[in-house]
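Fig. S4 source data, part A: sequence.
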Amino acid sequence: MYKVIITPLAHLDEENAYVWYEEKLNGLGDEFLTALEYAYNKISQNPDYFSFIDSNKEIRDYLLPRFPFLIVFRIKNDIVEIITIHHAKKHPLRKYGRTIK
């Protein structure tokens, strides 16, 4: 199992989505966070399973069930680095993260 590290950018994405869902319906933000935790666990078990989304073959994504978000990540040795949590219906180039290095 890989260790999951969430970048500050991804953490901010999580917080923003949580607040938005909670404002729409009490408890929905918690369901979003539960879905994220499930996804992080699934990714950590077999991150190589997920397809590359960039030409350098570094960055992968996972479509969150029920919520229109992509978890964008990369593998560094035995660590899965969560780069961003991208809303699937927003500008597609932003899914690569705003500060990927």
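Fig. S4 source data, part B ends here. The chain has one domain: 3-95.
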